[in-house]
């Protein structure tokens, strides 16, 4: 699965801790992250992470483009709800795209742990089925 990992500044260490704890599951998936978050995850875990721009410089929009092109399967976004973000419109657009394209979106550690445990058990196979069906429709 293609998984996006995003964290606001005050949540970056939480994301590093999360990915460290669950690297044994994440290593089997294709990981994408906004710039600084992805770099910190790489350093801490050694996981292979595709890096986009930082969020304020367009990284959220790059991930949004993958969602719109049906190239992203899950978004884990540790948001900081207590700090104003200068790129809030981009964040809102990313979340809206997740809703439009039925992409699972976790915005805190508790929901993210549920997603990761689901990945571990194979509970997100429906995404693969949806992708296969879309491919078959394109070929018909």
UniProtKB/TrEMBL annotation:
GO terms for cellular component: cytosol. One of its GO terms (biological process) is methylglyoxal biosynthetic process. Keywords: Lyase. It is an enzyme of class 4 (lyase). It comes from the Bacteria. The active site is at residue 60. SUPFAM superfamilies: Methylglyoxal synthase-like. Its EC number is 4.2.3.3. InterPro entries: Methylgl_synth, Methylglyoxal_synth_AS, MGS-like_dom, MGS-like_dom_sf. It catalyses: dihydroxyacetone phosphate = methylglyoxal + phosphate. Catalyzes the formation of methylglyoxal from dihydroxyacetone phosphate. This is Methylglyoxal synthase. It comes from Virgibacillus pantothenticus. The gene is mgsA.
């Amino acid at each position: 699965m293609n998984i996006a990992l995003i964290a606001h500044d005050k949540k970056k260490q939480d994301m590093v801790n999360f990915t460290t704890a669950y690297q044994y599951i994440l290593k089997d998936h294709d990981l994408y992250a906004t710039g600084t978050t992805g770099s910190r995850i790489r350093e801490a875990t050694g996981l292979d992470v595709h890096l986009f721009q930082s969020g304020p410089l367009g990284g959220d929009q790059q991930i949004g483009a993958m969602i719109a092109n049906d190239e992203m399967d899950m978004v884990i976004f540790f948001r900081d709800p207590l700090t104003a973000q200068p790129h809030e419109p981009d964040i809102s657009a990313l979340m809206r795209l997740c809703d439009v394209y039925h992409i699972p979106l976790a915005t805190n550690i508790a929901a993210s742990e549920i997603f990761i445990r689901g990945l571990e058990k194979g509970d997100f196979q429906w995404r693969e089925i949806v992708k296969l069906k879309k491919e078959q429709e394109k070929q018909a």
